[in-house]
Amino acid sequence: MPKGKNAIVTGSTSGIGLGIASAFCEAGMNVMLNGFGDAEKIESVRAGLEADHGVTVRYNSADMSKPDQIRDLAEYAKAELGQVDVVVNNAGIQHVEIIEDFPDEKWDAIISINLTAAFHLIKHTVKDMKARKWGRIINLASAHGLVASPFKSAYVASKHGVIGLTKVVGLEYAEDGITCNAICPGWVKTGLVEQQIADQARTTGISEENVIRDVMLAGQPTKEFVTVEQLAATALFLCSDGAASITGTSISVDGGWTAR
Ligand code: NAD
User: Active-site residue 155, yes or no?
Assistant: First the structure.
């Protein structure tokens, strides 16, 4: 079981990443937090997780769009936790705009944080996992890694890329006790989605209430947001011995969205 294992969870200062980090700590894992936010609040979360669960929790502020900072994050995690057994590539951003007006710098930022960062962090941690014959790599993709929606060119491209990367890592390390899988959530009501509700209301000219009811949850057959806790439980399962033969694939946690 994952108890005692050491994990890096990128983008874990809020939303899904924080939910996964908290569930990992509750399960007895040590965690390297990462992400942006108010320094005092992050320190209070870090110290709280340590105190509540009796595990080691550290924080590193690496900007996941910067390859050298990602390498430093991997090194810091190794130094502080001893070794890295589990990597969760979760940090992600979004921008919603029709392609003809889509800013070049937004495209570059989304591809680098949502996709390229996962390549770099895997590259800097997988060799040690291979030497120890155990590792778990979990990439937060999206239903948008499997299907598309308009106005999300960079996001959809990055998440389809993440699923491709997941397959390749799964194949390359299949004989080394390492699994690599993608989790594909449907709509989860986090900060990232609160922003999109506002953006979609702006681009489509309808109210925020109608965006939730008629746009977002219209395609999610359960008509409920997926919860952070459900995604954390999926990530924890992927770390377990029971999931040892699940690799190179994606698990949809999307309320039936991609069943259509
Ligand atoms: P969120 O905005 O609540 O959290 C994103 C996290 O990433 C934050 O901790 C933020 O500080 C961090 N981050 C952003 N840019 C960063 C950078 N350059 N370097 C380091 N950290 C950075 O979003 P969320 O909804 O929790 O999303 C988490 C992941 O789940 C993302 O990859 C997202 O694409 C994916 N996802 C979310 C949903 C959803 O509906 N919320 C659905 C499918 C997939």
Answer: yes
255 in contact with ligand 1, CB cutoff 6 A:
no
Ligand 1 atom at minimal distance to the Cα of residue 13: 9
Domain that holds residue 236: 6-186+226-259
Question: What's the CATH number where 77 sits?
Answer: 3.40.50.720
Ligand 1 pocket: which of 87, 110, 190, 217 to mutate (most atoms within 8 A of CB): 190
Q: What's the structural domain count of the chain?
A: 1
Among candidate residues 57, 5, 13, the one with its CA nearest the CA of residue 31? 57
Q: Say if ligand 1 is within 6 A of residue 225 CB.
A: no
Residue 182 lies in a domain: yes
What pLDDT score was predicted for residue 39?
98
pTM: 0.97
Two tokens, residue 198:
């506002």
Asked if residue 1 has pLDDT above 80, the reply is no
Give the C-alpha separation, 83 to 78, whole Å: 5
Cα 131 to middle of ligand 1, angstroms: 30
Q: CA–CA separation, 100 vs 88, rounded Å?
A: 33
